[in-house]
Hints:
The protein is of the alpha+beta class. It is globular.
Amino acid sequence: xxxxxxxxxxxxxxxxxxxxxxxxxxxxxxxxxxxxxxxxxxxxxxxxxxxxxxxxxxxxxxxxxxxxxxxxxxxxxxxxxxxxxxxxxxxxxxxxxxxxxxxxxxxxxxxxxxxxxxxxxxxxxxxxxxxxxxxxxxxxxxxxxxxxxxxxxxxxxxxxxxxxxxxxxxxxxxxxxxxxxxxxxxxxxxxxxxxxxxxxxxxxxxxxxxxxxxxxxxxxxxxxxxxxxxxxxxxxxxxxxxxxxxxxxxxxxxxx
Length: 256
C-alpha cells in the first residue's frame, strides 16, 4: 500500500545551496532524482536537473564535469556568492550515489530518512552496505556474462549465449539466498530495510532490485514480502514523478 505523499511546503527562504543533478538515462542517477523529487515536495527543496541520453557524446560531456564521466554527478552552486562547500574532494562536486544520497539527507532532509531508534539506525547502515557490496555486486557478475549475447551480431547470438549462459546461471543461483535474506528481513513490525520507516538503505536497495526485476533475475512471486516492499517503493509519488522527469529507466536494454 502506498504511503500518503507529504504535503508540499514552500521553497525554504534560507536555501543557499542549489544542487544540480547530472542524470544519465538508465543509470543509478534515477534514484537520486527520486529523492530530490521527494525533498522538493516535502521540504520545498529547489534543485536543477540536466539530462543526458546514453551516448558517447554524453559520456564525453560528463567527463568534463568529473574525470571519470560517471553518473550520477551532483554539482552545488550557492545563492550568496560564497564558494560551494567541499563535501568529498573537489568543491561543489559529488559522485557516487550512496554518498550523494547521504549528503542530500543530511543537508536538506532533516529526519525524513533517519531511523528513529538505534536498532533501526544500525539496521539501516547494514542494509546500505549490503545493497552495494552483496546484491549489486552479484548482479554485476551476472550482467558481465548476460550482456554479450545481447550485443553481438545476430548470427553469433546462439553461440555466445551457449558459452555464457552457464556462468549467468551460476550467478543467478548465488542471488537466490540473497533474495531470501531480504525477504526474511521484512515484517509487519519492520516493513522497510531501515526498520519501521523508509530510510536510505531502502533507496539504495532499489538499484539492485531494479536490475533484478528488469532483467528477470528474480521471481517476485517467490518472495511476497519483498514484492510488497518493491510495490510500495514504486507507488511513491516522488518515485513516479522522477520516472516522468528522467530520460527512461530500462535496465534490460543496456546492451541493445
